[in-house]
Amino acid sequence: MKLGIIGGGAMAEAIVSGLLTSQILASRDIIVSDPQPERCLVLSERYGVHTTGDNLAVCAAELLLLAIKPQMFATVVAQIAEQVSSQLVISILAGISLETLVASFPQCALVRAMPNTPALVRSGITALSRSSSTSEALFTRAKDLFAAVGTVVEVPESSMNAVTGLSGSGPGYLAVIIEGLIDGGVAVGLPRNIATRLVLQTVRGSAELLIQENLHPAVLKDRVTSPGGTTIAGIAQLEAHGVRSACIAAVQAAADRAKALGEKND
Ligand SMILES: NC(=O)c1ccc[n+]([C@@H]2O[C@H](COP(=O)([O-])OP(=O)(O)OC[C@H]3O[C@@H](n4cnc5c(N)ncnc54)[C@H](OP(=O)(O)O)[C@@H]3O)[C@@H](O)[C@H]2O)c1
What we know:
- 52% of the residues lie in helices and 14% in strands.
- By secondary structure, it is α/β, with parallel strands linked by helices.
- Helix 5 links the parallel strand 7 and strand 8.
């Protein structure tokens, strides 16, 4: 199977890297188009994939992945639509609905996907939904592709903007929270490199614990808060500063933004 990717940015790179590491595809089976020659050079040198500045050169691949910004969708469709007829087209574009994809590529099997950047280290999570004309076999092919770079969940297309605001944007939220905790460590006198190691392993370990023991987060919180202890003193400050409502508002704002990006392309 040949994979053509239009748009060689951060997310395309994460997926290419994961696919090659998991040996789902070989570098010779992947071609990426991007307008920046320097970007093409980076991708071909780093991953050995074919690269081109010409989007049409990618359209011969059986599997086409759209990885441009949503704002570029209409431009790219105008360029390639006539060359794309019977392929499986997967879009990872925030906000672009299956309805818009079907109207743009009426003869294709279509999958809307929302991955996230930990795909780069094969720890991503991707939500997928398919158009009504996409067969189970082709949908499985799309699932296999993203399973190579992490976990896969199937969701109704109506949930896609919500997924975008949660797991699509989630690594960004966590980066801010992690940075804040590291700064907290520095504020109480720890060297930044030690604070960073402490925070990253605490985040990874806590996520692993929740996953492996299938724990509700509230149970973990209750386990670590002893009466009159340190953790409850810290949590009281998180609550006083509205950390919970800030998280909810962040996901809501990102989901709204995904919806707005899609409406521009309807
Ligand atoms: N990053 C994430 O965490 C994430 C998560 C889930 C989904 N997504 C989705 O993935 C898509 C790509 O996001 P990204 O973060 O990878 O963005 P990005 O790094 O900006 O990548 C987009 C790439 O497409 C290139 N491009 C621009 N116009 C093009 C054209 N006409 N033909 C071909 N390539 C073109 C851009 O080049 P220039 O830099 O020269 O413009 C850039 O290299 C977005 O639709 C986003 O919604 C991203």
